[in-house]
Amino acid sequence: MTVLNGKGVLDGIAIGKIVFYQRKGQEAVKRHVENTEEELRRYQDAKEQEAADLKKLYEKALHEAGEKSAKIFEIHQMILEDIDFCDAITDTIKSERVNAEYAVKKACDTYIQTISAIDDPYLKERAADIRDISQKLIGILTNSESDTFTSEEPVIIAADDLTPSETVQLDKSKILAFITINGSVNSHTAILARSMNIPAVVAVGEELGLKYNGNNAIVDGASGRIYIAPDAETVRLFSERREAKKAEQEQLHSLKGKKSVTMDGKEINIYANIGRPEDVEAVLRNDAEGIGLFRSEFLYLGRETYPTEEEQFQAYRSVAENMQGKQVIIRTLDIGADKQADYFEMPKEANPAMGCRAIRICLTRQDIFKTQLRALYRASAFGNIAIMFPMIISVGEVRAIKQIIHAVQLELSGEGAAYNPETKLGIMVETPAAALISDELAKEVDFFSIGTNDLTQYTLAIDRQNPSLEHFYDAHHKAVLTLIRITAENAHKNGIFVGICGELGADLSLTETFLRMGIDELSVSAPCVLPLRKKVMETRMDR
Ligand code: PEP
Ligand code: MG
C-alpha cells in the first residue's frame, strides 16, 4: 500500500479504481517531412475519418435533439470539404514540406484571423466551428482524439489538473472522486467538486504518477490522503467510516423543512450555489431555501460557441420553475481568469485575474451581455428570478448596466415578450473597492452578495489558484472580515439585504460571526446546507 498526501477539498470517502484523464493532444508541432505524398495521404485519411464521425454525430443529434441541433454537424461537414480550406492545407504540406497536423493548424489560424477582423456575429460563430473541425483533425492525425475518460463503472479520476470546463463536462454518475497533481482548494474546480458532492484531493504532487492508472485506491477527502492498493484491513476500516458518514447524513435529513433559526430566534436564509440547471435536484434534496448564486458562466464553458438566447432562456426558466417560487439569484457571466472559453477570443493577458473578466467583458462586448439579459428577463416571467453582476468596482458600472437593461426591456416590450420589470438587481461584493464604497453602491441596487473567494484574493493580493500560497491565503484575515462587516452595515443602513455566496459562507467556525454581523443569507454548496442549518439551530447569541 502506498499513501499519498494532498489537500482535501470535500469531506467524504471514495473507494474504487483510479483512471487517468487523457487530454486531447492539440499540439500540432511543425515537422519537416521528406515524403509530402505520405502527408497528403494522411490528411486525406483523417478527413475521411472525420467525415464519417460527423455523419454519425449528425444522426445521433437528429435522433436525440432534432433537426435544428443536428444542422451544426452539416455545417461542419461543409467546412471540412470547403475547397479553400482544403487547398490551404495541401498547399502548405507541398510548399513548406511540413507535416499534415501543422498544415491543418496553420490553415485554421489563418482562417480565424481573417474572420476575426470582420465584425459579423455569424462569421464569429463559424470561427469556433473551424477551430472545432481542425482540433478533431489534429486529434485524429496525432492519435489523441480522446479528451475525456471512458469507463463503465464509477471511478476515481486522476489528472494533472482539471479546468472548470473539463470538470463540467464529466459524467457525474461515473465519478467517485477527483485527485489531482496540482490545483488549489479555492479554485473553481474545487468549488465544482464540492457542489457535485464528490470527494476530492488536490495538490498531491508529482508522486501521483501514471503508474497508478488502474490501481484500486481509497480517497479520504477529510485528511487529504490517498491510499493506493490498500490492504484488506484498511479497506474494511474506510468502508465502515463511509457507512458511518452516510448515517450522519441521514440524521441531518431530519432537519429538512425546518427553519434556519438560532436558539434565541434569529433567522437566516440558507441558499445553495449551483453551476448548471441539473444541480437544482441537489438543491431541493438538501432543502435549500433558494439559490443564492447560479454561476451562469458554466453554461458558456466546455463548448465551441456561445449559448444562444433560446438555450439560455430554457436553462434559466427550468431552474426558476423547478424552484417553485423560491428565489433564484442568477449571476451574469463571469468568464475570465481560470474560466476560459476559447471562442470568446480574448487576448492573452499577463495577469488574467486582474484582467478583462466578468462585467468588464460584458460592458465591452455588449452584444454578448444583451443576449444574456434578454434570456434572463424572458425567464423572469416564469419564477422568482433576481439578477446579479460580478466583479463590480464602481457606481458608474452599475449605472451603465442599468442603461443596457433599460434598452433590453424596451426591446422585449416592443416584441410583446413577457418579463418581470420588478426583477431584483444586485451586485457581487468581491473587490475591496466595492466593499469600501458599499454605502454608495447600496443606493443603486436591491441586494449585495459577498463573494469571499475573490474578496480574499484581492484583499490579500494572493492568487486563489496558486497552491503554493495556500498557507498565506487566510480567509479569516481581519481585513477580509472587516470588509464583510462594512458591507453588511452599509447594506442595512440603506435598507437592502446582504448575503454571502463565497466558500466562507459554509465555514461553520464563522457562522456565529456572520449571524452577529446581521448577514441575511448564506449561500453554500448543496451538501453544506443541512450541516449549516444544524449549526445555526445550535447557536445562541443572547449571551
Ligand atoms: C467569489 O468570488 O466568492 C464567488 C462566489 O465567485 P467565484 O467563486 O465564482 O469567483
Ligand atoms: Mg468571484
From TrEMBL:
Cofactor(s) the protein requires to work: Mg(2+)
Q: Where in the cell is it found?
A: Cytoplasm
Sequence ranges assigned to domain PEP-utilising enzyme C-terminal in this UniProt record: 250-538
Q: What is its EC number?
A: 2.7.3.9
Query: What's the catalysed reaction?
Result: L-histidyl-[protein] + phosphoenolpyruvate = N(pros)-phospho-L-histidyl-[protein] + pyruvate
Q: Which Pfam families match?
A: PEP-utilisers_N, PEP-utilizers, PEP-utilizers_C
Residue ranges of every copy of the PEP-utilising enzyme mobile domain listed in the record: 152-224
Single GO MF annotation: phosphoenolpyruvate-protein phosphotransferase activity
Enzyme's top EC category: transferase
Keyword field: Coiled coil, Cytoplasm, Kinase, Magnesium, Metal-binding, Phosphotransferase system, Sugar transport, Transferase, Transport
Q: Where is the Phosphotransferase system enzyme I N-terminal domain?
A: 6-126
Any coiled-coil regions, as ranges: 26-64
| Its biological purpose | General (non sugar-specific) component of the phosphoenolpyruvate-dependent sugar phosphotransferase system (sugar PTS). This major carbohydrate active-transport system catalyzes the phosphorylation of incoming sugar substrates concomitantly with their translocation across the cell membrane. Enzyme I transfers the phosphoryl group from phosphoenolpyruvate (PEP) to the phosphoryl carrier protein (HPr).
**Family label:** Belongs to the PEP-utilizing enzyme family.
Write the protein's name.
Phosphoenolpyruvate-protein phosphotransferase
Species of origin reads Caproiciproducens faecalis
